[in-house]
Design a protein that fits this description.
Integrase-like_cat_sf, 3-stranded antiparallel sheet, mainly alpha, 49% helix, 435 residues, 3 domains
Length: 435
């Protein structure tokens, strides 16, 4: 497995390079102590944050800090542990940012690179507060949060074209997991067979793996929604089926790879590109684009509250992701509402996550269907709306039967009585609304 896919291994490699770098010995010792202090798996040395509690970082962040301290140490004429004051630290970053530093290319380093290095150095000085550098005064050139480019967003028709272009159960499983969960590629890549429960329609983030970027901090249980049947179909073809093996692994017919081992992220991305090419869809088939599609559907088409959306995709309640990355949704909502009010457009009722055909029972689905009227498979994240639709569709199915069919009419009357029971309604809502 590539070290790129394993944050812990990537960190260890970065730490080793830092340890062996041609730096002042005191800088190396101070940097390694700092990294150990924020390593969640080391307890011999701790870093107490401003809130008085121990602060740790994920392995991906640790790797970035190790790389930053190594490169800054190589460029700085003065060791980090001997910097006279905060002004000297900022002056150094100004030099490498502008390109006036003798060892830096003309034009200097990009703001994104500087921001990463400055963040690592700032945290380093926050830990080593005895060095006389005020970490709060180290200037960090933050990059503005990028928003979603609406031109890259998939349409419902393009999603269906991608679905039609998939030619094996594993790739269909990957596509539907990305579409229906909004998770990052790392979360999907690290799922094990035992982490998915297609009977209950849920999955559990693999908290034994690093690199989830905090997605598991809100709990690990999430709904599979429309991915439940594709996951079930792939499990039947899975080369091992062993509970502890990875869900997304090589095909049974593969000539290379080890059955049960996780696919690399580069392989997953390559397969998605092949699907997009076969479908004739020229928009970026990267996993994050499917994440954006999911969030957009939840917010714009299903009207979910932002706290629920953030929970589903793994952001904490204080995250600003909806105000930054998905700002376009608020703008679109206002424009759409104004145009509907002015009779310039019809209200949109399509369910963007709903396929043309139910993968569970083969029922043809209407574009606005949030659940299959044939088998009850839920496709929309707003489970309450799906519950209402299931009730209506089931009643309608019975109502359209022969009036002389007394058995069916009796079932209909019984169903009405059951659905009128508040306890049954509450249980159904709870079942469909499980996270």
């Amino acid at each position: 497995m590539s070290s790129i896919d394993d944050p812990e291994r990537r960190y260890q490699l970065s730490r080793d390079r830092l340890k062996d770098a041609d730096l002042h010995p005191d800088d190396i010792d101070a940097a390694l102590e700092f990294l150990d202090a924020i390593n969640p798996d080391i307890s011999t040395v701790n870093f107490t944050g401003e809130n008085g509690e121990r602060e740790t970082k994920a392995y991906g962040t640790l790797a970035a800090y190790a790389q930053a301290l190594k490169r800054v140490g190589e460029l700085a004429n003065t060791p980090l542990v001997e910097m006279p004051d905060t002004r000297a630290v900022n002056a150094f970053f100004d030099e490498i940012g502008s390109g006036t530093h003798p060892d830096v290319k003309e034009g200097g380093y990009a703001k994104s690179t500087l921001s990463q290095w400055q963040s690592g150095v700032t945290k380093f000085y926050e830990y080593h507060d005895d060095l006389g550098i005020n970490h709060t005064e180290v200037v960090v050139k933050r990059q503005p949060k990028s928003s979603v480019d609406e031109r890259d967003m998939y349409t419902r028709e393009e999603i269906q074209e991608l679905r039609d272009a998939v030619n094996n159960t594993r790739d269909r499983c990957v596509l539907e997991l990305l579409l229906n969960t909004g998770q990052r590629i790392r979360a999907i890549q690290t799922l094990r067979v035992k982490d998915v429960d297609t009977d209950e329609g849920v999955y559990y983030l693999n908290t034994d793996e690093a690199g989830l970027k905090g997605a598991d901090k809100n709990g690990s249980k999430r709904p599979l929604l429309g991915a439940a049947r594709p996951v079930y179909d792939w499990l039947k073809d899975h080369p091992t089926g062993e509970p502890d093996d990875y869900l997304i692994t090589c095909l049974p017919t593969a000539q290379r790879g080890t059955a049960g081992e996780k696919l690399s992220q580069s392989t997953i991305r390559s397969q998605l590109k092949k699907v997009a090419k076969n479908a004739g869809v020229d928009k970026p088939p990267n996993p994050h684009n499917f994440r954006h599609y999911f969030v957009t559907a939840c917010k714009r088409d299903y009207g979910m509250d932002e706290s629920t959306i953030k929970h589903l995709i793994g952001h904490g309640p204080n995250s600003k992701v909806m105000e930054t990355t998905y700002q376009h949704l608020t703008d679109d909502d206002h424009i759409r509402a104004a145009e509907v009010a002015a009779d310039m457009r019809e209200p949109e009722e399509e369910s963007p996550l709903t396929p043309q055909v139910c993968p569970t029972c083969g029922e043809q689905l209407e574009p606005e269907a949030k659940a299959c009227p044939g088998c009850g498979t839920v496709f929309a994240p707003d489970a309450k709306a799906a519950e209402d639709q299931i009730q209506d569709d089931m009643k309608q199915s019975y109502a359209e039967t022969d009036p002389e069919d007394s058995d069916t009419q009796e079932k209909l009357d019984t169903l009405d009585e059951i659905l009128d029971d508040p306890e049954v309604k509450a249980a159904l809502a709870e079942k469909l609304g499980e996270d």
